[in-house]
Amino acid sequence: MIKLIAFDMDGVIFKHNNFWLELHKKLGTYEQGKKLTEKYLYDDYRQLVSEVVEKLWKGMDAAPFYELISEMQFTAGAKECFADLKEKGIKTAIISSGEKHLALFAQKELGIDYVFSNELMIKKNKITGDFLWPIGADNKDVFLKRLCEDLKIPIEETCVVGHDQADIKMARAAGWSIGFMPDDKFRKVCDETIDKEDLWLVVKIIEEMKNNSNRL
């Protein structure tokens, strides 16, 4: 039985695949940001933070950041998905290297139980150059394990809904994994795949798992 489901955020709960690249577009740094992301995202996240937040964005007006937050759209079926999971008594979490303000917005609107994410620091409406980033591209599994320990839920009774390469370690740690519109690398490791933009299909898969378990 699944008692906890951990969701990636970008490309799963929200339609966009990468909030930070969308912010690059807003701030006029997209070409530089794209190159830096491709170079450092999976190999040296610390360097990516240094090059982008501490150098490229430091001192910029934060208005485009807040504007982008207000424009973000939930994936189809997101509200129905989380409402049904809550009704079934299944705990939910966001574990994402995405932005904290966006994750908290999703938590409030969708009733998500737990949020783990990163935070771009802003002071006096300026990007300060500081970035609180407990979550990189390769340590999401650590947060899933800690949450399971805190909730006293066996990790075998968890499910991960992921999207890309950064979710692989977390998916392998969980008892079950679902790829939501996954990239090629994540598709190879997930137990189930959803190739239609409808997050409610997560609920359908969980129900099928329960029914199959009852028949055993």
CATH class annotation of the largest domain: Alpha Beta
Q: Determine the CATH superfamily of the largest domain.
A: HAD superfamily/HAD-like
Number of helices: 10
Helix content: 40-55%
Strand content: 15-25%
Which H/E pattern describes the elements? EHHHHHEHEEHEHEHEH
Large-scale geometry? globular
Major sheet summary line: 7 strands, mixed
Supply Rg. Answer: 17 Å
Quaternary structure: single chain
Structural class by SSE content: alpha/beta
**CATH fold call of the largest domain:** Rossmann fold
Descriptive account of the structure:
This protein is α/β, with parallel strands linked by helices. It contains 10 helices and 7 strands. α1 packs antiparallel against α2 and α2 runs antiparallel to α3. The radius of gyration is 17 Å and the shape is globular.
Main features:
7 strands; Rossmann fold; alpha/beta; globular; about 220 residues; 7-stranded mixed β-sheet; 2 domains
Helices and strands in order:
Blueprint: E1 4-7, H1 19-27, H2 30-40, H3 45-56, H4 63-71, H5 78-87, E2 91-99, H6 100-110, E3 114-123, E4 126-132, H7 140-151, E5 158-162, H8 168-173, E6 176-180, H9 184-187, E7 192-194, H10 201-215
Parallel strand pairs: 1-2, 1-5, 2-3, 5-6, 6-7
Antiparallel strand pairs: 3-4
Helix pairs in contact: 1-2, 2-3
